[in-house]
């Protein structure tokens, strides 16, 4: 290949790249997103779009599913869109779905819906999106109305009072319709539909339809002109095209129109009442076309041509500015909506909803979708821009154009990547790529590489020396003259991320992963400052004449570093802790490009503003090494392109959005199915959401107001002040089976910076439990159980009391019987024996007298045992002493008695039963214990008497069992119970037994 051919090829490549770059620049400034059935769009043929005050879109149209299994009453014709989710709204009249063809929003926020009915009269409804209510506008008294039109600040509707008469009604306050005028159509039956056009132009009206010719009237209805009937007659020539207005709009007191089956644009002449052609070849061959005028009067024309959808601003007098085009399948019927055509546009076509976000003028954007690196001013106008992996570009600030900068080494094309700096040295640009220092001619792109070690940062020390940092190797220098690499100092433990050199060429200050590393160029002394901050990972270093060394850390801290004193001052702390990419001083502000937006920081007031994608940035994450000053502003680079802005003209958009609940889906136990609630008035009452026990599934849809597809918010929810659950960008919460209980649900929206948007949603949820799990049922069951148990316990208590009473009565009767027998023995048997004894003595029958005397003594002994007469004659103490003295004398046991005088504290009942207790206990010891000793102690202790009987006999182990089964122990226990005392028995096999009886005494006994 000769030099001319090679040069021609170079220029051809450059020209292609320039053209490609220009097209990319024009197209990529417009953000375009398409929503289809995959995203939830349920309307196949979109017929209209409006937006409510909250910013949500309302979409009407037809569902083309004609299967027999889909009933007429279930066809979806109306949806709400919040930017992410489509909500199906079933509009029904007489239990049949309402097919909405046109919509318009009233000033009271209700939406007029026009229903086209091919089997009957057209109907106009009023739909309240707040209450989700549908109302027929009977008060308008219309028999065959068209859709409502808003012209200027008034509402109009056309009506057919009969087959040939057209009436023009003006609607007042969304309530009453007033007939302005009417006119007759002489050639055809009138059918007002979506093809009907009604235009108010000054003091005249233009009415057009595919059923009658264009009619022009004044404000009183006087027909000023009717276009020829040619083509509208029933017997018309099929080759003659009917002429009617397809689209019309007013701009700057001029009326423009497109006619049916005509590619030409027309302007209406008010004087002649004629339409004049404005030649514009752009529309030749169009398939579908729609015009739209936003509330600010800006006009957009959308049309399909050769498989593309074109978007064009209509400027004036036929001047058309095409701003965007893209391939499209079918755009024969186009519907449009926008509140501000400078910002965004919604377009509905068959089965697709298109969203367009137009460039924000605050930031000029170039090289969209490319990662930026070094930016260097070549002169006052031109800048060299390096990308991470897409080569270099040349940017002309005056012309606002950007073109590829082609490079060659040894006549072969090369592309530099990850250039961390560009240093201008006359006609040479010094830079780096990977492990090379590279010299590039600034005009022709010829380059030369000098390889050594991967380079991470690069600065110029003087006319002949470059200094660069490496990762875990060394701080290096490169001699431009000798082209040699040399290590200044070994840094094998440090990652040298960025470096800066002061104006006096004394200090090299380096940002590292472990702090700030300094190198004194005069003394070659090095210092690592690793304790400056809690987080000492620094991402960037720069030197500015007004601030000195500025360094930014990974956690968003900017410090001003003073190497002479090894000190620093904190200049700025990022509230999002976003890493610092670049710092650009501009007047009294520092413009800090971070990993989460661009920050304007006022050094004097210490206040800041953050700019993000909602303000016009293509991406929020800034790139390091990528910033430069222009004559009127600043260039910055981020992950998605190059941005230029003028600081004085930059304003952060303040969000006024709020979080709203849009839909609640719960199970209705009465209807036995799930129901969806859209009524905002019900939500406003803040009543608890009740989940029936049969099905506790709950689905909530919510969204921020102010529809913004690119808002980049995320959502969180919290139950009963528990942990926050991140939902991401999902605007829906679904609980499949919420456990029974009462819940406080809080939902909040957060922006890209972590700040809460608007006020959180607070919802009360009550999930009902099955009746057998409810507290009242459980309480009732427990109460019944308690009553039953209480009744059984009461019965057991009664039984026990009866047993005690029986035992006590038995003992009492026993005592009575003993007393009776003792008296009988004493009074009868004793007297008889005494008489026998005296008779025997008188007859000197000594043997009989002796036996009689012995028998008499035994009878008296039995009588005393049956009823201790001495107990009442001698008293309790003396009787017990006598009893135990007899035991001591008549048995081999040693008896030890300690008894206090307690007679005055005992009544007759206590005296008898205590005596019997001692008597029976002593008898048990004699019969069963085989003890060698017996200890009895009776003591007074405050208001009670303690009786203790201890033996050292056989003893036994199972005290409780023996106490329940032994008649002797039972009797002892009953005797103590009779006098309201307590008995404790302690015994152990082979160690004897101890009885401890405690008897309460009356308080007045101690007074």
From TrEMBL:
<dbReference type="InterPro" id="IPR003594">
    <property type="entry name" value="HATPase_dom"/>
</dbReference>
<feature type="transmembrane region" description="Helical">
    <location>
        <begin position="775"/>
        <end position="794"/>
    </location>
</feature>
<dbReference type="InterPro" id="IPR050482">
    <property type="entry name" value="Sensor_HK_TwoCompSys"/>
</dbReference>
<dbReference type="InterPro" id="IPR036890">
    <property type="entry name" value="HATPase_C_sf"/>
</dbReference>
<dbReference type="InterPro" id="IPR015943">
    <property type="entry name" value="WD40/YVTN_repeat-like_dom_sf"/>
</dbReference>
<dbReference type="InterPro" id="IPR011044">
    <property type="entry name" value="Quino_amine_DH_bsu"/>
</dbReference>
<dbReference type="Pfam" id="PF07730">
    <property type="entry name" value="HisKA_3"/>
</dbReference>
<keyword id="KW-1133">Transmembrane helix</keyword>
<keyword id="KW-0902">Two-component regulatory system</keyword>
<keyword id="KW-0472">Membrane</keyword>
<dbReference type="GO" id="GO:0046983">
    <property type="term" value="F:protein dimerization activity"/>
</dbReference>
<feature type="domain" description="Histidine kinase">
    <location>
        <begin position="820"/>
        <end position="1003"/>
    </location>
</feature>
<dbReference type="GO" id="GO:0016020">
    <property type="term" value="C:membrane"/>
</dbReference>
<keyword id="KW-0418">Kinase</keyword>
<keyword id="KW-0808">Transferase</keyword>
<protein>
    <submittedName>
        <fullName>Multi-sensor signal transduction histidine kinase</fullName>
        <ecNumber>2.7.13.3</ecNumber>
    </submittedName>
</protein>
<dbReference type="InterPro" id="IPR013783">
    <property type="entry name" value="Ig-like_fold"/>
</dbReference>
<dbReference type="GO" id="GO:0000155">
    <property type="term" value="F:phosphorelay sensor kinase activity"/>
</dbReference>
<keyword id="KW-0812">Transmembrane</keyword>
<dbReference type="InterPro" id="IPR011712">
    <property type="entry name" value="Sig_transdc_His_kin_sub3_dim/P"/>
</dbReference>
<dbReference type="InterPro" id="IPR005467">
    <property type="entry name" value="His_kinase_dom"/>
</dbReference>
<dbReference type="Pfam" id="PF02518">
    <property type="entry name" value="HATPase_c"/>
</dbReference>
């Amino acid at each position: 290949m000769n030099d001319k051919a090679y040069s021609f090829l170079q220029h051809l490549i450059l020209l292609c790249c320039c053209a490609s770059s220009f097209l990319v620049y024009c197209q990529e400034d417009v953000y375009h997103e398409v929503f289809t059935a995959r995203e939830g769009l349920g309307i196949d043929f979109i017929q209209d779009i409006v937006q409510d005050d909250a910013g949500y879109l309302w979409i009407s149209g037809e569902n083309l599913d004609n299967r027999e299994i889909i009933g007429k009453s279930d066809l979806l014709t109306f949806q709400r869109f919040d930017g992410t989710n489509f909500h199906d709204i079933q509009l029904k009249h007489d239990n049949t779905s309402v097919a909405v063809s046109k919509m318009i929003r009233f000033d009271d926020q209700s939406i007029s819906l026009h229903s086209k009915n091919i089997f009957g009269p057209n109907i106009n409804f009023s739909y309240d999106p707040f209450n989700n209510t549908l109302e027929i506008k009977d008060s308008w008294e219309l028999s065959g109305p068209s859709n409502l039109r808003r012209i200027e600040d008034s509402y109009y509707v056309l009506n057919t009072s009969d087959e040939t008469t057209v009436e023009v009604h003006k609607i007042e306050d969304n309530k009453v319709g007033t007939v302005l005028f009417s006119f007759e159509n002489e050639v055809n039956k009138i059918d007002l539909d979506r093809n009907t056009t009604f235009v108010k132009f000054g003091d005249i009206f233009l009415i057009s339809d595919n059923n009658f010719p264009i009619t022009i009237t004044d404000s009183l209805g006087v027909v000023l002109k009717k276009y020829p009937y040619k083509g509208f007659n029933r017997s018309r020539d099929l080759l003659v095209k009917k002429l009617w207005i397809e689209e019309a709009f007013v701009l700057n007191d001029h009326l423009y129109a497109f006619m049916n089956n005509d590619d030409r644009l027309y302007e209406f002449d008010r004087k002649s009442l004629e339409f004049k052609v404005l030649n514009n070849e752009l529309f030749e061959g169009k398939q579908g076309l729609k015009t739209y005028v936003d509330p600010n009067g800006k006009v957009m024309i959308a049309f399909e041509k050769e498989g593309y959808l074109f978007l064009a601003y209509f400027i004036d007098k036929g001047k058309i500015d095409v701003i965007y085009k893209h391939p499209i399948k079918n755009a024969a019927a186009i519907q449009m909506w926008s509140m501000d055509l400078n910002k965004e546009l919604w377009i509905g076509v068959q089965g697709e909803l298109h969203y367009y976000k137009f460039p924000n003028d605050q930031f000029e954007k170039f090289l969209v979708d490319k990662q930026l690196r070094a930016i260097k001013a070549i002169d006052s106008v031109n800048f060299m821009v390096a990308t991470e992996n897409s080569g270099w570009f040349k940017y002309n600030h005056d012309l606002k154009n950007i073109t590829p900068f082609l490079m060659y080494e040894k006549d072969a094309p090369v592309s530099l990547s990850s250039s961390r700096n560009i240093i201008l040295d006359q006609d040479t640009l010094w830079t780096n790529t990977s492990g090379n220092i590279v010299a590039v001619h600034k005009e022709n792109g010829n380059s030369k590489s000098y390889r050594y070690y991967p380079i991470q940062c690069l600065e110029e020390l003087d006319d002949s020396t470059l200094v660069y940092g490496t990762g875990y190797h060394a701080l290096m220098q490169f001699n431009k003259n000798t082209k040699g690499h040399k290590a200044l100092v070994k840094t094998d433990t440090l990652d040298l991320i960025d470096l800066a050199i002061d104006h006096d060429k004394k200090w090299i200050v380096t940002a590292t992963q472990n702090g700030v590393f300094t190198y004194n160029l005069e003394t070659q002394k090095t210092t690592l400052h690793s304790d400056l901050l809690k987080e000492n990972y620094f991402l960037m270093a720069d030197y500015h004449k007004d601030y000195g060394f500025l360094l930014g850390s990974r956690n968003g801290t900017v410090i001003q570093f003073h190497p002479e004193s090894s000190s620093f001052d904190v200049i700025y702390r990022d509230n999002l802790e976003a890493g610092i990419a670049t710092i650009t001083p501009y007047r009294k502000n520092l413009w800090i490009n971070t990993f989460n937006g661009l920050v304007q920081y006022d050094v004097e007031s210490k206040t800041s503003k953050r700019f993000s994608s909602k303000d016009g940035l293509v991406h929020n994450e800034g790139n390091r090494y990528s910033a430069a000053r222009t004559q009127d502003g600043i260039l910055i680079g981020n992950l998605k392109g190059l941005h230029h802005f003028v600081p004085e003209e930059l304003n952060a958009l303040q969000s006024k959005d709020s979080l709203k609940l849009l839909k609640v889906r719960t199970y209705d136990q009465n209807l036995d199915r799930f129901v969806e609630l859209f009524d905002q008035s019900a939500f406003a009452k803040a009543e608890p959401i009740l989940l029936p026990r049969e099905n506790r599934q709950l689905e909530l849809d919510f969204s921020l107001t102010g529809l913004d597809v690119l808002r980049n918010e995320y959502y969180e929810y919290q139950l009963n002040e528990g942990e926050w659950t991140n939902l991401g960008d999902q605007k829906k919460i679904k609980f499949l089976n919420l456990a029974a209980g009462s819940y406080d649900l809080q939902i909040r929206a957060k922006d890209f910076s972590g700040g809460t948007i608007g006020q959180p949603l607070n919802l009360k949820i009550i999930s009902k439990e099955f009746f057998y799990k409810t507290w009242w049922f459980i309480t009732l069951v427990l109460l019944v159980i308690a009553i039953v148990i209480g009744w059984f316990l009461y019965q057991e208590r009664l039984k026990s009391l009866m047993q005690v009473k029986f035992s006590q009565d038995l003992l009492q009767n026993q005592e009575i019987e003993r007393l009776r027998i003792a008296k009988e023995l004493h009074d009868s048997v004793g007297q008889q024996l005494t008489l026998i004894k005296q008779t025997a003595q008188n007859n000197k029958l000594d043997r009989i007298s002796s036996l009689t005397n012995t028998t008499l003594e035994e009878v008296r002994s039995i009588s005393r045992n049956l009823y201790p007469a001495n107990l009442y004659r001698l008293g309790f103490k003396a009787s017990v002493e006598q009893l135990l003295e007899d035991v001591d004398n008549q048995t081999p046991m040693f008896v030890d008695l300690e008894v206090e005088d307690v007679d005055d504290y005992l009544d007759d009942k206590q005296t008898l039963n205590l005596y019997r207790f001692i008597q029976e206990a002593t008898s048990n010891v004699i019969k069963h214990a085989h003890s060698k000793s017996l200890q009895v102690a009776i003591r007074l202790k405050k208001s009670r008497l303690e009786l203790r009987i201890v033996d050292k006999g056989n003893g036994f182990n199972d005290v409780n069992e023996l106490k329940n089964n032994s008649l002797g122990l039972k009797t002892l226990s009953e005797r103590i119970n009779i006098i309201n005392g307590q008995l404790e028995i302690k015994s152990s096999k082979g160690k004897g037994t101890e009885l401890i009886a405690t008897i309460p005494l009356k308080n007045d006994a101690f007074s």
